[in-house]
Design a protein that fits this description.
With about 400 residues, this protein is mainly alpha-helical. About 65% of the residues lie in helices and about 0% in strands. It has 17 helices and no strands.
């Protein structure tokens, strides 16, 4: 029980004379007798420590405890999910191709591509479309790089002496292809690039590729070989696997506010789903080609893989350097070529080449340029390598963005 003593709360007496005590004397207010204000309490900024360790204080002498091994492994897997998924799919296909061949039998790769573009439509904001229209110079450069500049490399690659010669011919044909149907868009989204610009370059390059790819192959590789493309079949395939799912996803986003809010609140989860769907493509391709891959001499295959890696690195370097040079032309205001979201979209999409179109071309050739299986094998490896290399590049970009954000 708390006892209150009136003497503690007695009001001060007047200097001249004494007055009788009254109840009003004992009245007081919280404001009149409140203690003086304390100085403001400030929190010192603390550095977050992975794994829940103690923060390092400047005068406390505490040291950050290292994260547990399991937490560190989980953080590594989360940061490098896409390349790990791709490598895991390839390893699974090499160990046991049964499931991959079954997935190919039921055209699972087509459904996975369909799903990727539905997600692209769901996550595509309208303002990104407007930004993509404003960045038309960057998109135009990307299209020229895909369909005009990079096919020119085929002229030099085809002159390389190699055994079997189909490996080099296949890589030269790979240079003449349009960009990938799904991986470029998915990686652009993960890298924080403008996905609308990536989608525009993907759709337009593949549509124009129906006309330009046969011309490039005939000029640089198959002069007089009667190279042709199944134009109607490829056009229907592009509409079914790119445009229709993209429109469905975008319409669902625009017609339902709840769907749009759910997608925006779970973008990380949708990115993971896109990465899983993307990893199905190399898993199925390696499963289909496993027996043929194992029949190739390891040394010849390793050299071909190395050439494919160098080819993709050369495309990345060319596009990055060209964008850097173009960004210097505009001094008064920021150029679209210097913008991070546009440059990343162009670098990723313009540096990749598609495998399904090449397979369709090889089937139409009927052995005119060599054994079909040997033409496709180096391109399968190059297709997988470019996705792995670009996923590593995307992870590096994302880590650099996080460090920049934390520094601010």
């Amino acid at each position: 029980m708390i006892a209150h003593y009136p003497s503690v709360f007695r009001a001060p007496l007047p200097a001249a004379g004494l007055r009788p005590l009254t109840p009003q004397v004992f009245r007081f207010t919280a404001a009149a007798y409140s203690p003086p204000p304390l100085p403001p309490f400030r929190l010192r900024p603390l550095r977050a420590v992975a794994g829940g360790g103690s923060p390092v204080a400047g005068d406390g002498g505490k040291r950050a405890t290292p994260p547990p091994l399991g937490a560190a492994a989980l953080d590594f897997a989360r940061s490098n999910f896409l390349p790990l998924a791709l490598i895991g799919g390839i390893a699974l296909a090499l160990l046991d191709p049964t499931l991959g061949c079954l997935a190919h039998k039921y055209s699972l790769s087509k459904y996975s591509t369909f799903g990727i573009f539905v997600i692209s439509g769901l996550t595509l904001r309208t303002k990104e479309l407007g930004a993509a229209l404003q960045a038309w110079p960057a998109g135009l450069f990307g299209l020229c790089s895909i369909l005009l500049f990079t096919p020119f490399l085929a002229k030099f690659i085809v002159q390389t002496q190699f055994s079997p010669p189909e490996f080099i011919t296949g890589l030269a044909m790979f240079c003449c292809m349009p960009t990938t149907l799904s991986s470029g868009v998915t990686l652009t989204q993960l890298a924080g690039g403008n996905s609308a610009l990536a989608l525009a370059m993907t759709v337009i390059s593949n549509l124009l590729g129906i006309i330009l790819v046969p011309l490039s192959l005939a000029k640089y590789i198959g002069t007089g070989a009667g190279v042709s493309l199944p134009t109607e079949k490829l056009f229907k395939s592009l509409v079914n696997t790119l445009l229709i799912p993209l429109i469905l996803g975008k319409v669902a986003r625009e017609t339902s506010k709840g769907i749009a809010e759910f997608v925006d609140g779970n973008r990380q989860g949708f990115s993971v789903i896109s990465a899983v769907l993307l990893s199905l493509v190399p898993w199925i391709q390696v499963s289909r080609s496993r027996s043929l891959l194992l029949s190739v001499q390891p040394k010849a295959f390793a050299i071909t893989v190395a050439i494919g890696v160098l080819l993709h690195l050369a495309l990345l370097a060319f596009n990055a350097t060209a964008l850097q040079a173009l960004s210097c032309l505009k001094q008064k205001e920021e150029s679209v070529f210097a913008s991070k979201e546009y440059s990343r979209a162009v670098i990723l999409v313009a540096s990749q080449k598609t495998l399904p179109v090449l397979v369709a071309v090889v089937e139409q050739l009927g052995g005119a340029l060599g054994e079909s299986g040997f033409l496709v094998i180096p391109c399968v490896a190059a297709h997988i390598n470019q996705i792995i290399i670009d996923s590593i590049l995307v992870n590096w970009w994302r880590q650099r963005d996080r460090q920049s954000t934390n520094a601010k």
